[in-house]
Specification:
160 residues; alpha/beta; 2 domains; 7 strands
């Protein structure tokens, strides 16, 4: 594993720092993972979205990983916890592998803990997705709230 500082965009640093602060004061169950993300962010080199190299893994990047032990390849996306869904290969930045991937570059080898032990993975390819704008994020949250409200209303009417 390369031992060098990682790079994150200023936008990712802002959102991730707010996430860490919010979860520190909540009942978030995995404080060790939270501390690990916080330490990763503290050691990161912060740069603008326009200046960060395209091969750096940032939030919403898709990464083709090669498992160095099994030689299997798989495509994952690094996402915020609300969007994580391992069945669709969206890995939370709060998961051990997510923390290990953040800010790494194409070609880097990472070692991370997984439920079955430890994995050695190489970032074979990094594909960037446009950063989500604040307006899009607000719209997405609003749509989720509306969907939740309509499900709650439907559930209540079915129960009646």
């Amino acid at each position: 594993m390369k031992n060098r500082s990682i790079m994150v965009t200023d936008a990712d640093m802002d959102r991730l720092s707010r996430l860490v602060r919010a979860l520190k004061h909540s009942l978030f169950r995995d404080q060790l993972q939270l501390e690990s993300l916080e330490q990763t962010l503290e050691s990161a080199e912060v740069t603008s979205s326009k200046r960060i190299p395209r091969d750096v893994i940032r939030m919403n990047s898709s990464i083709r990983l090669l498992d160095l032990d099994t030689r299997k390849k798989q495509l994952y996306s690094l996402v915020f916890p609300d969007n994580a869904d391992i069945s669709t290969s969206r890995v939370s930045v709060l998961a051990p592998v997510g923390i290990a991937l953040l800010g790494r570059s194409q070609g880097d080898v990472i070692e991370t803990k997984v439920p079955g032990g430890a994995k050695r993975l190489r970032a074979e390819r990094v594909l960037q997705r446009p950063e989500i704008t604040r307006r899009q994020a607000r719209s997405d949250r609003s749509n989720r709230r509306e969907l939740h409200s309509s499900r709650t209303i439907q559930s209540a009417s079915l129960a009646a």
